């Protein structure tokens, strides 16, 4: 019975803290996405992501000549909020938020 009470207490604490974490996480992704400029280099993008509190998924090729896509996603596994960064060669082409 005591174990059940402890589990319920932990669930209540998580239910209170998680929304604040989610807001903080989304804010970090949005802030990072706003800082990425079209025309900046892929190297600068990677450097910026290493010094930001975001989860950066490194650029992957799109099976087209020189095109690539990178993502900045939330740490929360229950959120689909992300920043999509597309580029060509070594420069950033477009940036947008997906919810």
Description of the structure:
This protein is an alpha+beta fold. It has a single domain (about 1-99), classed as Beta-lactamase Inhibitory Protein, Chain:B, domain 1 (2-Layer Sandwich). Helix content is about 45%, strand content about 30%. The chain contains two helices and four strands, in the order ααββββ. It has a four-stranded antiparallel β-sheet, covered by helices on one side. Strand 2 and strand 3 (about 80-90) form a beta hairpin. The mean pLDDT is about 90.
List the SSEs and their pairings:
Blueprint: H1 2-35, H2 42-50, E1 55-61, E2 67-73, E3 82-88, E4 91-98
Antiparallel strand pairs: 1-2, 2-3, 3-4
Which structural class do the helices and strands define? alpha+beta
Helix/strand order: HHEEEE
Query: Distance N terminus to C terminus?
Result: 41 Å
CATH topology value: Beta-lactamase Inhibitory Protein, Chain:B, domain 1
Helix content: 40-55%
Strand line-up of the largest beta sheet: 1-2-3-4
Low-confidence stretches: none
Helix count, DSSP H or I runs of 4 or more residues? 2
Number of individual domains: 1
Largest sheet: 4 strands, antiparallel
The CATH architecture classification is 2-Layer Sandwich
Number of strands: 4
- Top CATH class: Alpha Beta
Q: Rg to the nearest angstrom?
A: 18 Å
Q: What is the overall pLDDT average?
A: 92
